[in-house]
Amino acid sequence: MEGKLAEMMRWIVRLIVEYWPQFLKGTGMTVLLAVVGTIAGFIIGLVIGVLRTIPKSVGGHSALSPRNVLLKVVNAITAIYTEVLRGTPMMVQAMLIYYGLTEFANIDIAALPAGIIVITLNTGAYMAEIVRGGIQSIAEGQTEAAKAIGMNHWKTMLHVVLPQAIRNIIPAMGNEFIVNLKDSSVLNVIQVAELFYATKVIRGVYYRTYEPFLIAAAIYLLLTLLASRLLRILEKHLDGPREYVLVEKGEAIFAKAHSVRPNAARWLRPRK
After folding, report:
1. What integer pLDDT is reported at residue 53 of this predicted model?
2. Phi–psi pair at 245, nearest 5 degrees
């Protein structure tokens, strides 16, 4: 047992020394796919989430108005998009997009752009539901108050609802980013040179399976732990200070995301 453990450690050291550029390149590609896919997917999800909150016209024959008909069509398309992309594996989506574009659309697309498209579309489907949930988490009273002072739907979303909703969904967005770090490994089926693909290539050199994939597992774990830590720091920063002290009126007011109503003579500021 000790001999096998010592041999395994020798192979791990040897593979790291000889193939660290390949591991590093694969790691960089994995991070690139996760970052670009998550950001682009968030934009898609944000657009869909906002579109699905547009109110329909009411009264009279408004059910057949062009606006309501268009909203029904848009909602149907976005619902199909989210259900199909969330209901099928990313590996299957990668195969369909990469080979389907070549076979049916005569588009010769490279593996990396195809991989980014796959992760973006897949993430967008999940982000659409995350954004919708974030919007619904905001009290309706805030929307009604915005409309009472003359804001239309788009201004209400931009200035009142979305700033709070985005803050609420940051943990879910971070989780989606971490999922993309790991799930990008399925793109090796279309020869995207991410970490898993690079590890398979290294395995084929010496026909050693355990050691290279143990190194890959350690890299994936390091990436996810680092991403989790950075997200906690971001959340803590957005939360703002947790303690406040009373100061005299005239100094700047500092408040957390929820409203704080000081009395006429005193203000609140964070404790240093």
Report:
1. 82
2. -125, 155
Distance CA 25, CA 48 (A): 34
Cβ(115)–Cβ(190) below 8 Å: yes
- Looking at the structure, tell me whether residues 173 and 252 fall in a common domain: no
Tens digit of each residue's pLDDT (9 = 90 or more) over 172-195? 999 999 999 999 999 999 999 899
Are 32 and 18 part of one and the same domain?
A: yes
What pLDDT is stored for residue 245 in this prediction?
Answer: 58
Q: Where do we find the tokens 């016209």? A: 57
List, in sequence order, every residue forming a beta bridge with 249; answer none if it has no partner.
251
- The residue to which tokens 């303690």 are assigned: 243
Are 65 and 147 spatial neighbours (Cβ–Cβ below 8 Å)? no
Flag residues of the chain having pLDDT under 70. Answer: 57-63, 240-272
The H or E element that residue 268 is part of is strand 266-270
Cβ distance 38 to 123 under 8 Å? yes
Q: What is the pLDDT of residue 143?
A: 82
Tokens, residue 96: 């369909």
Range of the domain at 251: 243-272
For the chain, the domain total comes to 2
Q: What is the pLDDT of residue 260?
A: 44
Predicted confidence at residue 63, as pLDDT, reads 63
Residue in 196, 185, 192, 214 with CA at minimum distance from that of residue 14? 214
Q: Bridge partners of 245?
A: 269
Q: 41 with 174, same domain?
A: yes
Q: List the beta bridge partners of residue 270.
A: 244
> Could you tell me if 102 and 166 lie in one domain?
yes
Output the pLDDT for position 266: 42
